[in-house]
């Protein structure tokens, strides 16, 4: 299995009752009625508070303009200009995009099935190099694995958790932290965008077996059925969609190994650039770094401790990190990633010892985290790092 493969065959899914998260933040365990623990996969982020490009805002502004809303009105309160929307290097906070979402709802909220109609505007090209990395993947399963690994290069507010079992593939959409006033719109937008982009990957409609939304049908039921090819169930317990497991192996028509590898490298570079920290985020990251990389930290400094050291309240620190498009967990991940590579390439410490020095109780969650960061195992990384 290559560096970006997800071993879907190791996963089984039972009826979910409660969720617990591994310390690496990548895997959930679902405890079913039978007590069995089933593993599922989630993206490289657990919150929508991440910096993003402006293509999503440009998409929504374009939709509004078609409905008679001036660009300047759509961008009011964001600090963005029409010219800035075309800048491929521009970054904004998630809160800035939320400002545009609220303006869109205020200006064109009467458009039937608004979230679905906007979601259909998101295509592979909207996602730039991230989208091209997905479309040149060998098959749908590889594209999903890549999309989860680089999820922060997208624009979603809802977080999908992918469950794979003998009965099929289910994407459970977590939207509980999305602000209530925009939750229905963003849930519709993000789910339809996921469907649209996946259909683009396949070169034709994705064949779904089930679609469920956790909100009322309103004016969207018929339009959603037309888009998905299956009538959604509304007022469900969760928002989710399902497909047959066999589709994971479906080759993508634009698959190209050389282009895929080049796009992945560019995605990694983009992640690194976006991870360059300034201001209070840099201060937090610096305080998370131990004085000696090889020493690591048996117990990372807590969020409350960092707030105390910076002479701010935890609430204020969290607000500042949100504004910077990051979080304590994301910064801790960055530091662990950096230290892990230093220890694996520059010391003879065993993988177990590296895990302990990074604050993991055992090696398994560290290995999962390292594969999420780099696409390979610690052992394989060490072999590749040695001259």
UniProtKB/TrEMBL annotation:
Span of the signal peptide: none
Record keywords, A-Z: DNA-binding, Transcription, Transcription regulation
Cellular component terms per the entry's GO annotation: cytosol
Entries under SUPFAM superfamilies matching the protein: Homeodomain-like
UniProt xrefs under InterPro entries: AraC-type_N, Homeodomain-like_sf, HTH_AraC, Tscrpt_reg_AraC-type_HTH
Pfam families assigned to the protein according to its UniProt record, in alphabetical order: Arabinose_bd (PF12625), HTH_18 (PF12833)
GO molecular function: DNA-binding transcription factor activity; transcription cis-regulatory region binding
HTH araC/xylS-type domain boundaries: 302-384
Protein known as: AraC family transcriptional regulator
Organism of derivation: Nocardia stercoris
């Amino acid at each position: 299995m290559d560096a970006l493969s997800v071993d879907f065959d190791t996963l089984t899914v039972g009826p979910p009752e409660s969720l617990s998260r591994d310390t690496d933040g990548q895997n959930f365990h679902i405890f079913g009625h039978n007590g069995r623990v089933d593993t599922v996969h989630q993206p490289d982020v657990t919150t929508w508070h991440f910096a993003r490009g402006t293509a999503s805002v440009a998409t929504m502004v374009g939709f509004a303009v078609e409905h008679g809303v001036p660009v300047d009105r759509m961008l009011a309160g964001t600090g963005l200009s029409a010219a800035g929307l075309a800048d491929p290097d521009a970054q904004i906070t998630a809160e800035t995009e939320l400002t545009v979402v609220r303006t869109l709802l205020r200006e064109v909220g009467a458009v039937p099935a608004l979230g679905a109609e906007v979601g259909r505007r998101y295509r592979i090209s909207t996602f730039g190099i991230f989208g091209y990395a997905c479309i040149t993947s060998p098959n749908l399963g590889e594209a999903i694995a890549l999309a989860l690994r680089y999820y922060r290069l997208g624009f979603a507010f809802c977080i999908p958790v992918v469950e794979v079992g003998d009965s099929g593939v289910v994407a459970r959409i977590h939207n509980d932290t999305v602000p209530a006033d925009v939750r229905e719109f963003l849930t519709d937008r993000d789910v339809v965008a996921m469907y649209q982009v996946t259909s683009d990957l396949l070169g034709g409609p994705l064949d779904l077996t089930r679609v469920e939304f956790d909100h009322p049908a309103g004016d969207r039921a018929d339009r959603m059925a037309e888009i998905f090819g299956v009538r959604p169930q509304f007022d469900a317990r969760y928002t989710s969609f399902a497909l047959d497991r066999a589709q994971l192996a479906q080759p993508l028509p634009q698959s190209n190994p050389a282009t895929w590898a080049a796009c992945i490298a560019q995605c990694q570079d983009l992640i690194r650039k976006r991870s360059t920290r300034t201001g209070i985020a840099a201060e937090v990251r610096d305080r998370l770094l131990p004085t000696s990389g090889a020493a690591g930290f048996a117990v990372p400094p807590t969020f409350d401790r960092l707030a105390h050291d910076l002479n701010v309240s935890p609430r204020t620190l969290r607000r500042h990190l949100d504004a910077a498009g990051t979080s304590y967990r994301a910064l801790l991940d960055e530091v662990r990633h950096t230290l892990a590579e230093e220890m694996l390439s520059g010391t003879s410490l065993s993988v177990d010892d590296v895990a302990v020095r990074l604050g993991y109780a055992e090696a398994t969650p560290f290995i999962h985290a390292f594969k999420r960061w780099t696409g390979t195992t610690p052992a394989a990384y060490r072999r590749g790092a040695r001259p």
